[in-house]
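Hey team,

Filing this mostly as a record. A colleague (T.K.) asked me to run one chain through the structure pipeline before their review meeting, and I want the input and output archived in the tracker in case anyone asks later how it was produced. No errors, nothing strange. Just documentation.

Input sequence:
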Amino acid sequence: MKRLFIIGSFAVLVCALLFAASGWGQTGASTIRGTVKDPSGALVSSATVTLTNLETNAVRTAVTTTSGSFSFEFLPVGDYEVRVEAKGFRKLVVRPVQALVSNVTDVPAQLEIGEISSTVTVEAVAANVQVNTSDATLGNNFSRRLNSEAIEEFRVVTVNANADEGRSSAAQINLVTKSGTNS
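Output structure:
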């Protein structure tokens, strides 16, 4: 009887872990990444990169690798500010950087030589539609197109889905609902 209980408990644990692992691929999260370079195009390592969500003021910080790269993963969709600081260079601020559902947003950062107390601000212009020609996906932010009460953003994958989209045929839709605020 005790042996049957242990085997049953183990089977339940394995099933729970398998279902939990499959759920990780179903998030509506986004990634913002980039490479920091100096005016000559050389990579800048050990630069401090600060990512701020413009809606919630949530802050994340990273340091660039020896290859000058940084990455912020598992981000909620929305608009962000990317701030890059390195010794001997002017501070760079890029905003708004739009994190789209299940998408990677690249932010190239080219620093200018100067004092860190001076700032270079880049105001990015948001695109209405993003088409990924490598895997036939289409994404759009509903609030820019429709007066929707609940939908923040969606992404449609029609054919040639990536491995993270699963193995089913036809179309798949990732949808993110708007988050609430206290104001």
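Quick notes for T.K.: Residues 129-177 form one domain. The first strand starts at residue 30 and ends at 37.
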